[in-house]
Amino acid sequence: MKKRWLFTAVGAAAGGTLAYFMKDEDNRQRVKDKAKTVQANFMQDGQKADMPVEEAGQPEEVSNMENSKMVSEGSQFGVQYYNELTEKEREILEKSNS
Description:
With about 100 residues, the chain is an all-alpha fold. About 75% of the residues lie in helices and about 0% in strands. The radius of gyration is 27 Å and the shape is elongated. The mean pLDDT is about 75.
């Protein structure tokens, strides 16, 4: 319980400090410039860095076609589980009605 109060107090203090710091236009501009600099560090030669997230949105363009096929098919585990449960429930209802 004490940890929750501690985290809340630290969060509130950080939020208050940030609000006080950001009320000045010059400080806001410095933060924006710093954010752009950090973003530029993640870019390579003006283009996006090769990250696995890029592959997730375009599975057909990935070099590993086996994984792409698996991802495009989707998981059927949830559907099978639901179907098995409803089938068992239906069997129980039929037995109880007989």
